[in-house]
Prior knowledge:
The structure holds two protein chains of two kinds. Chain A is α/β, with parallel strands linked by helices. Helices cover 58% and strands 7% of the residues of chain A. Chain A has helices at 3-23, 27-49, 58-77, 83-107, 122-150, 163-184, 187-205, 213-235, 238-262, 266-271, 297-305, 316-320, 324-336, 355-362, 373-376, 398-401, 452-464; strands at 309-314, 340-345, 370-372, 385-389, 420-425, 445-449. In chain A, helix 8 (213-235) packs antiparallel against helix 9 (238-262) and helix 11 (297-305) crosses helix 17. The radius of gyration of chain A is 25 Å and the shape is elongated. The N and C termini of chain A lie far apart (71 Å). In chain B, helix 1 (3-30) packs across helix 3 (46-66), helix 4 (73-84) packs antiparallel against helix 6 and helix 5 runs antiparallel to helix 6. Chain B has helices at residues 3-30, 32-40, 46-66, 73-84, 88-95, 102-131. The radius of gyration of chain B is 21 Å and the shape is flat. Chains A and B meet through helix 1, helix 2, helix 3, helix 4 and helix 8 of A and helix 1, helix 3, helix 4, helix 5 and helix 6 of B.
Amino acid sequence: MSANLSAILYLVSSICFIMALRGLSSPETSRAGNLYGIIGMTVAVATTLASPEVVSYWMIILGILIGGAIGSLIALRIEMTALPQLVAAFHSLVGLAAVFVAGAAFYAPESYGLGARGSIHAASLIEMSLGLAIGAITFTGSVVAFAKLQGLVSGKPLVFPGQHVFNAALGIAILLLCAWLVASESSVAFWLLCLVALALGFLLILPIGGADMPVVISMLNSYSGWAAAGIGFTLQNNLLIVTGALVGASGAILSYIMCKGMNRSIFNVILGGFGTDGGVAGPAGSSGDKAVKSGSAEDAAFIMKNARSVIVVPGYGMAVAQAQHALREMADLLKKEGVEVRYAIHPVAGRMPGHMNVLLAEANVPYEDVVELEEINRDFATADVAFVIGANDVTNPAAKTDPQSPIYGMPILDVERAQTVLFVKRSMSSGYAGVENELFFRDNTMMLFGDAKKMCEEIVKALGA
Amino acid sequence: MDATQISTRAGSLAADADTLAQNLRVLAADAGQIAHRSAEAAGLSPTVGALAVFVLACFVGYYVVWRVTPALHSPLMAVTNAVSSVIIVGALIAAGPAGLGFAKVMGFLAVVLASVNIFGGFIVTHRMLQMFKKKTR
């Protein structure tokens, strides 16, 4: 295949990828978008296989078969609640693949037209070291994120003294090693750079707490894109550059949206140390003398049955308890009673952007009923019931009223304006931010203590009776 | 190195030169100015051309992604993840040559990893998007 033809086919493939992202602007067009993505990838792979550099196929076919089988199996089996860790794991693979490709380009530059071993062009070496470093950081960073999300290590931020200084030193070391690599093309420099970048990725994500995971995942998404773009520069391949830039931009925008959802700056998140493991009891003593009204599933069923409109506020707790199906059943029964039921989604609900929407969609909740924060917030004032299930910090009015609160300034769902607030929770513990929610003690709040799924099932039973 | 090898090598070098020329042409469609300048200065570094492509693609990405509905942010992450595995293109070239060397083994490993991602990413995106079908009940 001529170089001209493959360049044009790569261009076609880039356009397909743009269309894939474009398709996601609405659920109706999204499936066609995914198809575009698959077509783009097929064209890209086929074009490369037909290029004159590729003459031996058995290893490639073996690799695709092995990888494809593993990938398909995992993707078909994964539970939607485990989506965040799956995505983190996939990001780590892109990072590692970037490291390997950079290695291949370093040891066999002639296959890529980068000059011969020992005399690789300086520009290519700079690009290669960037691709390598970003790839390595993405790899270990994603592994840590995966371990935290999977619960293999504690979600608590792990902080040690001098951490930031140490990380900065590693960052400088990476720059120096890049310079050394470009100047000498030494393989020692190459592997040292790889090691230091791996260490930095590990240490960067370690201090970031569980509550910040939506930002971390988006950030690593972005990194994996920049790594691909870096490799694209090395190989002078426009397809890789365009795709890397698209993915990088996408991840960066998602990180920005997530940060805004928590009123934190990206630096604040990266510096880490925020939040707790969750589920830990809040500051003791402060809640001792305040009265809390708690109710049973029957009470909740009675209140909601007699309401005109109910707004459900789901949070990560719902996902953990796998309560989405029982919740939808409850909503269906209420709808049959003539109650208007909608769902309010906070941008940072769940452990990754859009996580709640997927879980609700999985439980067959029509997506028209699921509304984003800005659109639904003023409707709380006219709602009879706000049904908060597994969410906490995103409803805390302290974010609006208490400048001392760590979550002050965070956009929240105004559930307190609803006539009655029902809170499904296992205990009085504080949320991930470690802040007590004053909402629990309000007169119009009723706590429903128990497991989210069991509570929904009991309400369903009570509604049926 | 025998004569045939040298000639294939020369062929691939010529092909490389062709690719570079093509890069510039693609750019021309996007930014007339740059094309104009590159025509004047034949010695333009390929990195500069690549940088132009990169920056323009960042802008495209920026505007396209802002239009993605928040409800589909999870599928967006999954599909960008699958798409960024286009890095497999680099891996295929490394795994492609005849014989067996260190670079080829690295290429093979990268092909495996990227394939996991491509298949896994597209399938999981598909599964998610299936759930967002309009409910007919």
